[in-house]
Amino acid sequence: MVQIIQNSLLTPYLALHIPDGFLSPSVSLFCWVITIVLITVSLKKVQRDYQEKTVPLMGVCAAFIFAAQMINFPIPGGTSGHLVGGTLAGIILGPWAGTLVVTVVFIVQAVLFQDGGLTVLGANILNMGLIGTFCGYYLYRAIRFSLNPRSLKSMTIATVVASWCSVVIAAIATAFQLALSGTVPLIASLIAMIGWHVLIGVGEALITMIAVGYIWKSRPDLIYDSPSSVRLDTRQKVHG
């Protein structure tokens, strides 16, 4: 996710796209297990609870995130970042379908563009996809519903905070994985990862806010917790 100038000694360690050989077999296996379990659960949830009309929306969302990730935005210090998209997918599709979408995106990136290693793909999907989507979505939902679930302002605040936090949390998870693997000392890894991704998260928050804001204004029914569905639930509770 983050690209550092070549003369930096920490260049290979500051990316959320972890390369092959940077995680120990035990850490990599642990991440694979968690990732496979969560993807399996997500598949079952989507097949059981989601309607067929969600499938085309998943495809469009995946295509948008993939295309948006090709655009890098500059960060001071010779660094550039790009959209991760986990929170965006979660807000539009919900955490379960959103998880499947970003998983497909990261698999394509790893296989076709060598963006991250194949042996550590489980860790990369866990950090950027699963943590980003689940943490981002549920934090967004908690903030939005605690303020006003039908308010554009509440949605904007929730989206910005959740998107930024999802990137920073993913960076922290990556730092711990590298440290547990003996690749980089924990303190150095945390300082480097958090320091850069605090800035990267700002770009993530802005892009996600613009995308979700546009959909909210033009097609709010496409959002997973749409304003209309919230009104319906509220009425049902009142009359129930």
Automatic annotation (TrEMBL):
The chain crosses the membrane at residues 21-43, 55-75, 87-112, 118-140, 161-180, 186-216. Pfam families: CbiM. Its main location: membrane. GO terms for biological process: transition metal ion transport. It is a multi-pass membrane protein. Keywords: Cell membrane, Membrane, Transmembrane, Transmembrane helix, Transport. It comes from the Bacteria. GO terms for cellular component: plasma membrane. Gene3D superfamilies: 1.10.1760.20. InterPro entries: CbiM/NikMN. It is found in: Cell membrane. NCBIfam families: PRK06265.1-1 (NF004902). This is Cobalamin (Vitamin B12) biosynthesis CbiM protein. It comes from Crocosphaera watsonii WH 8501.
